[in-house]
Design a protein that fits this description.
Blueprint (H helix, E strand, L loop, with lengths): L6 E4 L5 H12 L3 E6 L2 H8 L8 E5 L5 H15 L4 E4 L15 H28 L3 E8 L12 H20 L5 E8 L7 H5 L2 H9 L9 H12 L10 E4 L9
Parallel strand pairs: 1-2, 1-4, 2-3, 4-5, 5-6, 6-7
């Protein structure tokens, strides 16, 4: 088992990607603390995990610093350490023009996608230092690297670009503490808000034809990459931005 005896914390764990990742990590021997704002959603997400004693759900709003600090303290008090942190929680806006967005919508994206990640990492790093190491994985997007014509995601893209640079900075700053930090930049994944759209066969066909590998990504594609970066197999990998996008970011289309 690649994560035997590891303690992993996953934010946004009730999402399709977060749930699949939680299951994958438990299957590989980790105890996973699944964080999210809605306990019912977390419990539903954890219901597919066979070894339920290794999947623990805890309510936490990453925008609330006191909640974040309290949850991290509770985890370390119970399990003694945190080996792995996956920052999966995020928000995305409707694809509208930037000038049409409300200030509250802009602030919500920045607060969750940037400041929320900052809060969780800031609370976790001292625990990883005490444990003499750890692996942090941030979930980003290829929209941090390229703007998509007719898909207006300026603020979302900017938040994910911030996370890419933050990943590199944390990786270098804490390398001597044996704390690794990497980022997975996702392309189109059959998850979340994309699922209803992909249920239309014609819409799915159009998107698939635009992908170099001619298929849409699945949550499992993300989980497999996260599993590798979380494991000791990636012990010499840090500060890396890995595109999980079927080759889209390497193509012209």
């Amino acid at each position: 088992m690649r994560l035997k005896n590891k303690i992993a914390v996953i934010t946004g764990a009730s999402s399709d990607i977060g749930a699949d990742m939680s299951k994958k990590f438990v299957d590989e021997g980790a105890t996973v603390i699944m964080l999210g704002r809605n306990l019912k959603s977390l419990e539903k997400a954890s219901s597919v995990i066979k070894n339920k004693q290794y999947a623990v759900v805890m309510s936490c709003d990453i925008n609330n610093e006191s909640q974040v600090l309290s949850v991290i303290e509770q985890i370390v008090e119970k399990y003694g350490k945190i080996d792995i942190l996956v920052n999966n929680a995020a928000k995305i806006n409707d694809a509208i023009h930037f000038h049409e967005m409300k200030n509250s919508e802009i602030e919500e994206l920045v607060n969750t996608n940037v400041l929320g990640v900052f809060k969780v990492i800031k609370a976790t790093i001292p625990k990883m230092i005490e444990n003499k190491g750890g692996s942090i994985i941030n979930i980003g997007s290829i929209s941090s690297e390229r703007a998509i014509p007719r898909v207006h995601l300026a603020v979302y893209s900017a938040t994910k670009a911030a996370i890419s640079m933050f990943t590199k900075s944390i990786a270098v700053e804490y390398a001597r503490r044996n704390i690794r930090c990497n980022c997975l930049n996702l392309g189109i994944i059959n998850a979340g808000m994309m699922k209803p759209y992909l249920e239309d066969p014609q819409a799915r066909k159009v998107l698939e034809e635009r992908q170099p590998l001619h298929r849409i990504g699945d949550p499992e594609d993300v989980s497999n990459a996260a599993l590798f970066l979380a494991s000791d197999e990636a012990k010499w990998i840090t500060g890396t931005i890995l595109n999980i996008d079927g080759g889209k970011s390497a193509s012209e289309g």
